[in-house]
Amino acid sequence: MSNTKLFFVIILALAVIVFVFISLGSLKPPAPESLQSSNYADEQKLMQDIGPNATPEKQQEYFLLAKRLAKEGDSITIKDCKGSPTVLKATPGKMVTVTNQDGEDHQVILESGKYKYAVAANSTAEVKFDLFRGKGFYSYGCDRVAGPAGILFVEE
User: Fold this and answer.
1) For 55-59, 69-73, 100-104, 130-134, which range has the lowest pLDDT when averaged over its residues?
2) Count of CB atoms within 10 A of residue 87's CB?
3) Is pLDDT above 90 for 123?
4) Which residue ranges traverse the bilayer (predicted)?
5) How far apart are CA 156 and CA 150, in angstroms?
6) Among 70, 44, 77, which Cα is nearest to 135's?
7) Of 105, 102, 96, which Cα lies nearest the Cα of 76?
């Protein structure tokens, strides 16, 4: 093989290698779920009460969104009347630790005021939520603001 042909083969091989690296560089792996900006918007959507007259489609959309965002655990932290995690996957009859990081006493209100659990300012309380309906969603509120502070997701 002549030097000229060898030169062109090497240049062609280098061009192919550069093209492959450029193509692979433009393929980015998806961001981890914790970094996706849509999570904040989804959490805000969950905090909008769908109401008792929601269509089955709206209820299913809400269910799937809450299930996707649910975090396994046994504790809730309340700061500025907002629960963290936004959706806690809870187990019926199990104790849940509620930490109030606000400077005021709060009542965690479940089932539209039917159940109230007191949590003193800057303290932690062990609460056994009475989840009588079984599996489903239980929004809980803070006595200082309207709307839900967070959601308990029960899946037996």
Assistant:
1) 130-134
2) 22
3) yes
4) 6-27
5) 19
6) 70
7) 96
pTM across the whole model: 0.65
Strands 115-119 and 71-72: unpaired
Write down the domain spans for the chain.
1-30, 38-154
Q: What is the pLDDT of residues 16-63, one digit of tens each?
A: 787 777 776 655 555 554 444 457 777 777 777 666 778 888 888 888
Calculate Rg over the CA atoms of the chain: 26
Q: Between vectors from CA 122 to CA 116 and to CA 124, what angle results, nearest 5°? A: 55
- Distance from C-alpha of 155 to C-alpha of 31, rounded to nearest angstrom: 28
Interior CA angle at 140 toward 138 and 141, to 5°? 155
- The answer regarding whether domain 38-154 maps to CATH 2.60.40.420 reads yes
In the numeric block, which tokens belong to residue 105? 């006493």
